[in-house]
Amino acid sequence: MNQDIFIVDGARTPFLKSRNRPGPFSASDLATAVGKTLLSRQPFAPTELDEVILGCASPSVDEVNIGRVAALRMGCGFKVPGWTVMRNCASGMQSIDSAIANMRSGRANLILAGGVDALSRAPLLYSDRMVTWFSQFGAAKTAGQKAALFLKLSPTELLHPVIAIMRGLTDPMCGLLMGQTAENLAHRFGITRKQMDDYSARSHARVLAAQERGLFNDAHDGLAPEIEPLFDAKGALYKEDDGVRADSTAQNLAKLRPFFDRKFGNVTAGNSSQITDGGAWMLLATEEAVARHGLTPIGRIIDTQWAGLDPAQMGLGPVHAATPILRRHGLGLNDLDAWEINEAFAAQVLGCIEAWKSDEFCRQELGLDGAMGAINEDILNVDGGAIALGHPVGASGTRIVLHLLHVLKRTGKKRGMASICIGGGLGGAMLIETV
Fold first, then answer.
1. Which of 53, 42, 51 is nearest to 106 (CA)?
2. Quick one: residue 396, left, alpha or beta (phi over 0 = left, psi -120 to 50 = alpha)?
3. Other CB atoms within 10 Å distance of the CB of residue 163
4. pTM exceeding 0.90
5. Backbone angles phi, psi at 388, to 5 degrees
6. Does 346 share its domain with 320?
7. What is the pLDDT of residues 160-208, one digit of tens each?
8. Residue 1: which pLDDT band, with cuts at 50, 70 and 90?
9. Which end of the chain, N or C, is surrounded by fewer C-beta atoms within 10 Å?
10. How far apart (Å, rounded) are the C-alpha atoms in residues 373 and 296?
11. CA 176 to the chain's CA centroid
12. 415-422 and 338-341: which strand pairing?
């Protein structure tokens, strides 16, 4: 049960911002394209995988078990099981943890695990009343019956469908949009609008600096490129994350109006993560698979933790999940060489930072003797995060683990933590080290 789980390779697509219309790729297109590239550079055939596990929060109705669809499209053959996991924002991290469980139980030795979502293709829905009208219209026998139904048709309901992604981003237990839970954290810890906008501007600046240095698109330090380019059906090239903006300065972000609490709030579209399409994979292997296929590991997964908390405070999930790992391994916040905390909202990341600094929070919520202290922000999200890159919900958990490994290898460091908040009041964290 304690055997090493090695990271052998990984890759992701460019993260493509939603433009309020269906994007150029379906979720399985994204997963298939980058997965084929990743598998093509391995010394084994795709049919030699033991499993394919894919996290997805919003699969389309024609690819519900998208893990199986992607496995078949990637050429893994009929005999390689492909399946799908869903833990909201951490679906891509759940796929890795599910792989670990199956490998440590002896059921598998070589697994492709990842995450994907094409949120630009989230559907528009009709209300129950409108669906009932369509049903009655379909059952009508005569022209008169159909005409009578037309007289009852509500133009308002017909022309104002339910936006599925807004429904999906609303917690069914507390009734709050995810952005409203970020407002809760801002109020709880006294986080100002300026702090949010400053943090968001820094995220954009760090992504831009990483792009200029080729950190996402170039091979380095024995690693293949993190991003593999995509071509659409018309031959257009997509090679970089396209949500980052050079003009997203603190001054410009300050001009945006609050979105989730228009009267009293401070969370805006500019200091929130972007609605985005993207996919990511990681190839995981046991020591037996490494030896059998002559693989060269680049990292090792040390520990994983999941946590539950109040859904209205869901942004603090990274604190609740990462802290038990730190305690198990006798580590402080700054004993690690790098951190990735997924940037769902600037207020959410800043809330996590403040929570660890709070004696009251750490005593009451975490059962500690006192505050954990102040995390060194120079090692936190060093190349920016989801505020600038986007947050394709199913893919982000895989992306932050993969990118954390790239940061550690590039800087010649050893250990890092990837952590993520999860809609519904959950948190996930993963401790990794380089090999």
1. 51
2. alpha
3. 13
4. yes
5. -100, -35
6. yes
7. 888 899 899 999 999 999 999 999 999 999 999 999 999 999 999 999 9
8. low
9. N
10. 37
11. 20
12. parallel
At residue 417, φ and ψ (nearest 5 deg) are -120, 130
User: Percentage of the chain surpassing pLDDT 90?
Assistant: 93
Please calculate the CA angle 426-428-429 and round it to the nearest 5 degrees: 155
Radius of gyration of the chain (CA): 22
CB neighbour list of residue 158: distance below 8 Å, 6 or more residues apart: 130
Q: Helix H segments across 220-286?
A: 250-253
- The values of phi and psi at residue 116, to 5°, are -160, 150
Strand partners, 125: 162
Q: Is residue 278 part of a domain?
A: no
Length of the chain (residues): 435
pLDDT of 327 > 90? The answer is: yes
365 within a domain of the structure (yes/no) = yes
Domains contained in the chain, number: 2
pLDDT at 158 over 90: no
Distances (CA, A) of 260 to 66, 298, 424: 32, 42, 17
Pairwise CA distance, residues 85 & 222, whole Å: 31
Residue 384: CATH number of its domain: 3.40.47.10
Instruction: Give the integer Cα–Cα distance in Å for 320 and 309.
Output: 8
Tell me: do 324 and 389 sit in the same domain. yes
**Which residues are annotated as catalytic?**
89, 391, 421
DSSP letter at 223? Answer: B
Chain-centroid distance, C-alpha 123: 20
Q: Is 370 helix (H, G, I), strand (E, B) or coil?
A: coil
The range of the structural domain enclosing residue 362 comes to 178-220+302-434
Same domain, residue pair 139 and 215? no
Residue 53: its H or E element = strand 51-55
Vertex 19, ends 14 and 25: CA angle to 5°?
50
Asked if residue 187 is part of any domain, the answer here is: yes
What residues have CB less than 8 Å from 234, skipping those under 6 apart?
none
Q: Exposed, middle or buried: residue 140 (CB in 10 Å: 0-12, 13-18, 19+)?
A: middle
**Is 45 a domain residue?**
no
Distance, CA of 183 to CA of 347 (rounded, Å): 7
Helix runs in 241-306, H state only: 250-253, 287-293
How far from 149 is each of 25, 37, 128, 146, 162, CA to CA, in Å?
A: 38, 53, 16, 5, 22
Same domain (yes/no): 349, 390: yes
CB 273 within 8 A of CB 343: yes
401 plus 324 within the same structural domain: yes
